[in-house]
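call fold(seq) -> tokens
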Amino acid sequence: MTSLVATLGLTYDAEDVQSTDGIFLEIVSGLYDGIDVRGDDVTVPYADGQVSRPRRRHNRKIGLKGYVRGGDPLATTVIERQMDYSTKRRFFDTLFDPARLPATLIVLMPDGLTTATIEARPLNFIPTLIVPSEFCYMDVEMLSVDPDWTWAAS
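ret:
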């Protein structure tokens, strides 16, 4: 984690996604929620209610939110900031490409010792509030087909 601003540290595919001068994302859903289950209850003809059937953990939806910005501290002109933004945006688009294979998402908990790890892939990312060629907020939707986080203390 490179940011003291975030409560939880975050890396995806071994890339730090909390650089305050470029790409900064936080996990907003899916750490403690977001599990989908599969299985259906059965309706018995001529009987009241339904018969409950077992449910199985199916997958987990994970939401990330943050921004991409051209924040090179050495950039002194608008053109340099726009070029920096363009580079970071292309990197973001590649890292969170919905066609890519799943990669490891690691959340560093506030104690600085405990991590939660899961294999996930991007489903979609939605840019919002865009300042052309300089800044945009991003919402990232991810999916893990293994619904459980692996928790570890170091």
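DSSP finds one helix and nine strands in the chain.
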